[in-house]
Structure formats: structure tokens, C-alpha cells
Design a protein that fits this description.
Number of helices: 1
Helix content: under 10%
Strand content: over 45%
Strand order of the largest sheet: 15-16-19-24-27-30-33-36-39
Largest sheet: 9 strands, mixed
Oligomer: single chain
Length: 518
């Protein structure tokens, strides 16, 4: 069991071990009920109406564009007003103006310790927002609709501000896991609440950076089969992120899931619980290993991967309702892109390593931003508005589809629009034999669109009884009617479909006894 080291942690305004700097009704330390340090602070909120507790720092604090955080617990919440009316509020003041953010009410708070979090860049719900660079007072307000019992009923701990923390530590033989992070976070010497394990699920409430991008430290992380959920909180739209970065001296290895043969299994589920989506950023070229196997990403925004190198690969992962995946030249194989916000994945280099992937119900499956010739190796498309987007200005894009790839539609969105050519040559084959299984040469074969009747291909069978056309350019499934004819043989026809594998239609030809054969 590895012990992670946290750095760049939130800045502490008050550890709530004492009433120093605090004002609130009957406030005092409580060493028994706490989240970190030596104690929490407990208050008696027994007024019918507004009940405040606030902290005044020694000097003004810059709380602009950050996240204010406070552990909170109450037992009198049945007496609160609802959230829409400000049952539980955060407030800040600069001495002249005070602004209030509504966080909870009796209709949303279910009891127990919760980490109150607010994006200080948000507009306030009541009052007048102060100058956030010179905040002189930070507090909470509980608004009740009937008088609570006069008893200890409200606890707070660790008032701080910040976006997240950096994680380092572990070794090749003892890698950090999600459990290790949650355990270290929950320890009373830390108590940040950024990663909490509840009922087997890891809930994340901030930005997590794996690796020491500005120093020389190392980070070794690996885990399987866990569920990670970014909480639905009033946070900044750009807060939630898992970032992996390294340095030239230390070692950075990050892995979720395992590899079995050439396939990825036992991965982690990472999703956003609300409208605040999350980013996965791992573009640093000093990352020694980035391995994502069998993982599922739901409601991610941007997912950025590093350039191709040994130890960097994404295999058998699913990206559902996500933003565009930016793989650079990293290996991306056996992955599914489902209901993408628009583009599934960006193919930014002719030397990409994207193969054996499926694109399902995406606005644009593959996004190509630059002119060039790109190979689609076993890339399957189903239900996409457009399989390909060519966004380059006047960009000439050629797509060569191989190994069953089936791109068929494209959109040129550059200004001005470019051109896109799909080369997806498939073989059309018709075989004719008699009832003894012997090849019949010289049968006239016609393949036409069904039901239009437009000619697709025609010719005669050879000495092997085969007619083959290897020039058909496949741009999507095409229903066809296949007609073989030869004097002295009965008329035949077959309805079939040209698919991404081509077409192969066998016929057994019968003698037409009504015809006087020479």
C-alpha cells in the first residue's frame, strides 16, 4: 500500500481548531466530532431566521477565481428553508458589500458531513458581490423557517480555498491506487475532501494532478475496476480535470486497467455526475507510461493524449457523450466513440496510430484538420451524421480505407471548404456452377442497384466460373440485384447487399430444357 504525497494543496484560512478569528452563537471547539486537525467548531443556530458564523482573517484575502471550501455538518436541517430561498449559504464581504451564494436547503441536504464548495467567480444569489481581491469576512448563513432547538446543531471544519492538489509517490513495486489517495485525503492531517470513497465509489471535488511537472519527483499510479465520479457542485466549468505530467529527472507512470494479450480489460469508469464535465490531460512528453485499458469515460470534455512512444497506449476504451479526443500520435485501438458531442477523435497526423475503432451516432466520427493522405484501418462507422469532417481551409484529404473500414460520408467545413476523397476498394464476386459443382464459363453477369436498376458492374465468368470486379469504391451499404444469364440455362437472379466486406454471390445454374441446345 503506497502512501501518496500531496502538494499544491488548498490554502488554509482557518483549521477550525479554535475560535480565533471566528464569530458565531455559542461557538466552541469540539475535539470529538471533526474532519481534520485537533477539533472542529460547533455552534448553536437556534434563531428563527438568519443564523451566521463567520471568520475574519488578519488581513484581506484574495479569493478571486478560486474555490472556497468548508466542511459542514448540521442536525437542525428540518427547520431550514429550501435551497431556492437560501437555506444554507456561503457569504463573503469586503467590509462594504456582502454577497451570498445559495448552497443547500432542507430539500437537498440529507445530513452528515459535506464539503461545501463554491466557485468564487460565480455571480452571487443575493446581496452585492464584494471586491474579491480584498475579502475581509467569510462565513456561512443558515436560514430557518421555525425556531430550532437550543442545542449544539452546526459543526464546521477546515475553511480553505483552492482548486485541487498534486499527487506524487509510489514505486514500480508499490503503485498508488485510488484507495491510497482517498485514505491519505481522509487522514486528519490532511482532510481536504477532494477524493472521498463512499459506498465503493470515489467522488472527486477538484483538479487532480498526477506527477511533478515543475520539479524532479516521481509518480507511480495503477488501479483497476474502480468507479470515479466528479461531483455535481457549483464549481467552475474548467475545474474538473485529471492531469498527468512528468519531468526529465523523475519517473511518471499512470495506468488504469490491465492488458491481456493485445486487449485491454478491467478498466475504470470515470464520469461526471452533473453538467460540469471533466478533462483528461496527458500531453507532457516527459510521461514515461500512460496506459488506459478497458476504461469507460462518460461526459468528458477534452481528452488529450501524448505523442506515440513505448508505454503509451489506449486500448479497448469507451468514450461516451464526450468531447473530441485528441490523441496526437498515441496508440488508440479497439475503442468505441459513442454519441460524441460532435467530433469523436481528431486525426491530426498522417502517421497516426488509430485503428480497429468504432464510431456510433457521432456528429462527426473522425475529424481531420489538415490536408494529407490518411489510412483508416478497420475503422467502423454506424449512425454518424458524417463519418469524416475535413475542417482544413481548401484542404485536399484522401482517405484510404483498409481491413473492413467503412467510411462513407464526409463534410468539408473549412473556410473555404476543401475536398475529401474516400478510397475504399472492395471486390464484387459472382460464381456460377452447374448441379455437379463444375464451373460454368461465359455467363453474362450484371450487378445493378436495387431498386433503381442503375448499372454497377457487368462482365462474364472466367474458366473458373467466376466474375470478379475489384474496382468498386465502397461508400456505404448498397442493396443490389445480381443477374447471371447464358443461353441454354434458366434465368436466375439474387438480391443482396454490398457491405464493407464486399460482395460474394454463388449461383447454381440449371439447364433450360425448353431451349434447343446446339
Amino acid at each position: 500500500m503506497a502512501t501518496p504525497t500531496f502538494s499544491s494543496t488548498p490554502a488554509v484560512l482557518s483549521d477550525c481548531d479554535s475560535m480565533t478569528g471566528w464569530t458565531g452563537n455559542s461557538g466552541e471547539p469540539d475535539a470529538d466530532l471533526k474532519k481534520e486537525g485537533a477539533a472542529s467548531l460547533v455552534f448553536i443556530f437556534a434563531t428563527n431566521g438568519n443564523n451566521d458564523a463567520y471568520f475574519e482573517p488578519v488581513s484581506p484575502v484574495d479569493l478571486s477565481n478560486t474555490h472556497l471550501r468548508l466542511w459542514f455538518l448540521a442536525t437542525n436541517y428540518s427547520k431550514w428553508d429550501i435551497k431556492a430561498n437560501g437555506g444554507l449559504q456561503f457569504f463573503v464581504s469586503d467590509g462594504a458589500n456582502t454577497g451570498y451564494w445559495y448552497l443547500h436547503g432542507k430539500d437537498t441536504y440529507a445530513g452528515g458531513w459535506v464539503l461545501l464548495t463554491i466557485d468564487t467567480a460565480r455571480n452571487v444569489d443575493a446581496g452585492t458581490k464584494p471586491v474579491m481581491t480584498v475579502v475581509t469576512r467569510v462565513g456561512i448563513r443558515v436560514t430557518t423557517t421555525s425556531k430550532p432547538k437550543t442545542a449544539d446543531n452546526t459543526w464546521i471544519d477546515l475553511l480553505c480555498y483552492g482548486d485541487g492538489y498534486t499527487i506524487t509517490g509510489g514505486s514500480d513495486g508499490d503503485k498508488i491506487t485510488w484507495q491510497d489517495i482517498a485514505d491519505a485525503d481522509a487522514d486528519t492531517t490532511e482532510g481536504w475532501g477532494l477524493v472521498q470513497k463512499i459506498n465503493g465509489i470515489y467522488f472527486v471535488n477538484g483538479k487532480l494532478i498526477f506527477g511533478d511537472g515543475s520539479g524532479t519527483g516521481s509518480c507511480y499510479f495503477a488501479d483497476t475496476g474502480e468507479a470515479i465520479v466528479f461531483l455535481d457542485e457549483p464549481v467552475n466549468a474548467n475545474l474538473y480535470e485529471i492531469k498527468v505530467e512528468g519531468n526529465a529527472t523523475g519517473t511518471t507512470k499512470f495506468q488504469m486497467g490491465t492488458k491481456s494479450g493485445s486487449r485491454g480489460i478491467s478498466g475504470c469508469l470515470i464520469r461526471a455526475a452533473g453538467t460540469q464535465d471533466f478533462d483528461i490531460t496527458s500531453t507532457d512528453t516527459d510521461i514515461d507510461e500512460l496506459k488506459l485499458y478497458g476504461c469507460t469515460f462518460l461526459n468528458a470534455d477534452s481528452i488529450q493524449l501524448p505523442p506515440s512512444a513505448a508505454g503509451r497506449e489506449v486500448i479497448d476504451c469507451a468514450f461516451e457523450v464526450c468531447g473530441e479526443v485528441l490523441p496526437d500520435t498515441c496508440v488508440v485501438q479497439y475503442c468505441n466513440f459513442i454519441n460524441a458531442d460532435d467530433q469523436g477523435i481528431r486525426m491530426s497526423s498522417e502517421s497516426h496510430n488509430i485503428s480497429d475503432c468504432s464510431f456510433i451516432n457521432c456528429g462527426h466520427g473522425v475529424h481531420i484538420p489538415s490536408a494529407g493522405t490518411y489510412t483508416f484501418d478497420s475503422l467502423q462507422f454506424s449512425g454518424c451524421t458524417y463519418d469524416i469532417e475535413n475542417s482544413g481551409a481548401s484542404a485536399s484529404v484522401t482517405v484510404n480505407a483498409i481491413n473492413g473500414a467503412n467510411p462513407g460520408t464526409y463534410e468539408n467545413t473549412g473556410a473555404p471548404p476543401g475536398t475529401t476523397t474516400i478510397n475504399n476498394t472492395k471486390t464484387l464476386k459472382v460464381t456460377t456452377k452447374n448441379t455437379s459443382g463444375l464451373a460454368i464459363q461465359g455467363v453474362n453477369v450484371r450487378i445493378e442497384k436495387d431498386p433503381e436498376g442503375t448499372l454497377i458492374s457487368e462482365g462474364q465468368t472466367d474458366v473458373n466460373g467466376e466474375y470478379t470486379d475489384s474496382t468498386y469504391n465502397y461508400l456505404g451499404d448498397q442493396d443490389v440485384l445480381v443477374i447471371p444469364r447464358k443461353k441454354g440455362l434458366t434465368n436466375n437472379r439474387a438480391f443482396d447487399t454490398i457491405k464493407s466486406t464486399g460482395l460474394s454471390v454463388p449461383f447454381t445454374m440449371l439447364r433450360d430444357k425448353s431451349v434447343n441446345m446446339p
